[in-house]
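dude i think i finally got it to work??
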Amino acid sequence: MASTLVTGTSKGIGMAVALELGRAGHTVHATMRNPDGAPELAQIAKKEGLPITVSAMDVDSDSSVANGIAAIERTRGPIDVLVNNAGIEKRGTTEELALSEVRAVMETNYFGALRCIQAVMPGMRARKSGCIINVTSVSGKISSPPLGAYAASKFALEALSESLAQEAKMFNIRVAIVQPGIIDTAMAQRIGEASGASAYPHTRRMAGLFAATLKNPSSPTLVGEKIREIIESGTWILRHPVGPTAAPFLQWRAAMSDEQWVDWGSADDATWYQRVQSDFGIDARLPE
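look at this
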């Protein structure tokens, strides 16, 4: 069984990953910014007698990551697997989203993962073993408004992961990218809600697409199962789409030229909604 560190475990995908691994017998070091404010994981672990320990760690902070991981390794031993799951989203078009919001997304989704990678890599390299799993999104390959800033952070993490995979394999360290589609999480539910006024139609369009897809929700457990499979199988496959929407969305984008993609995203509402309906059978129109 592996000793695993999972970030962002207060809810959603992170909690599902921690529970999936703990129930499979893996030792789980589950981290989150404020354990006192999100006690559910610890309560479940205690009730079920799972090998899950919850601790505070803020991936946005150099000292919190360095001290948190050092404390885990000092008291519980080496970390075999790092699962970089912590992430946030901010919706808004390139013109309208405040720079502070863009920086916040990059700080957590990209630099947060990088901090954790840099903290565990020396030990893994010395032992010549380990596994680093970075949770990105189909937005790591597909960029659409109003999620451009979110996609930028996930594109960046995918690029970092490709480079890291080449560096790490020389030391027998596996790197995997997990790309969830639309999964039933609080984040996805927020994207599926109509938001404030905008000069652009894209926020409402994306909200409708998420809301319609979430009528047939995909559980975060799917991501937990995929991550457990990656850990236990020993696979060296780099990218792993997860959920019923992931591969179809990725294939849809790959089938278009860049210019076709831009034309679709910039089309009038009637054309945009009709294309989603014809290609996916989804009525993405929000109720008036």
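The radius of gyration is 19 Å.
im so relieved honestly
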